């Protein structure tokens, strides 16, 4: 009888330990999404405003827990003969012209440029100060073209 009890308790302890090991929280070192943006870019928001142009665009970005910042700039209906040349994130509110905060598309700095479909993608690793600054808002995206070097499209980061 004691032998049966011993086998029973041994099996019970084994099953409980398997349950405990199986229920341990898995650790995942993969970065997770902290914030995402989907910002429309328009000619009307540019300073000065760009008239008689039909372009519009979108800035899509994702900030991850490891401070990597993945982004994509998409421009639609670029006027024939014009070419997109660069894009930056600037400090400044609507209607203001501010200094460059982060280069997004700048062949001289990042070795990237807009592709044949008027789209550009990139990944930046940001500092904690840069992440804090983005989270405070008061920034805007500006896309420049050969014909409108001051900025063809613009959109505010809230």
Strand content: 35-45%
User: What's the helix-strand series?
Assistant: HEEEEEHEHEE
Low-confidence stretches: 2-13, 15-21
Top-tier CATH class = Mainly Beta
Architecture, CATH level 2?
Sandwich
| Category from helices, strands and their pairing | alpha+beta
Largest sheet: 4 strands, antiparallel
Description:
With 158 residues, this protein is α+β, with helices and mostly antiparallel strands. It has one domain: Immunoglobulin-like. Helices cover 22% and strands 39% of the residues. A four-stranded antiparallel beta sheet has the order 1-2-3-6, with no helix packed on it. Strands 5-4-7-8 form a four-stranded antiparallel beta sheet. A hairpin with a 7-residue loop joins strand 7 (139-145) and strand 8. The chain starts with a helix and ends with a strand. This is CHRD domain-containing protein.
What are the key terms here?
22% helix, 39% strand, alpha+beta, four-stranded antiparallel beta sheet, 158 residues, Immunoglobulin-like
């Amino acid at each position: 009888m004691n032998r049966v009890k011993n086998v029973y308790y041994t099996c019970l302890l084994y099953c409980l330990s398997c349950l405990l090991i199986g229920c341990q929280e898995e650790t995942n070192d993969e970065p997770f999404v902290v914030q995402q943006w989907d910002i429309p870019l328009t000619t009307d928001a540019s300073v000065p405003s760009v008239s008689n142009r039909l372009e519009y665009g979108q800035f899509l970005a994702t900030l991850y827990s490891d401070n990597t910042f993945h982004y994509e700039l998409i421009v639609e209906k670029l006027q024939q003969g014009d070419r997109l040349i660069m894009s930056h994130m600037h400090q400044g509110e609507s209607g203001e012209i501010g200094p460059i905060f982060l280069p997004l598309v700048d062949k001289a700095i990042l070795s990237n440029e807009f592709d044949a479909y008027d789209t550009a993608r990139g990944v930046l690793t940001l500092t904690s100060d840069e992440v804090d600054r983005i989270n405070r808002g008061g920034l805007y995206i500006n896309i420049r073209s050969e014909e409108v070097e001051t900025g063809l499209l613009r959109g505010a980061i809230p």
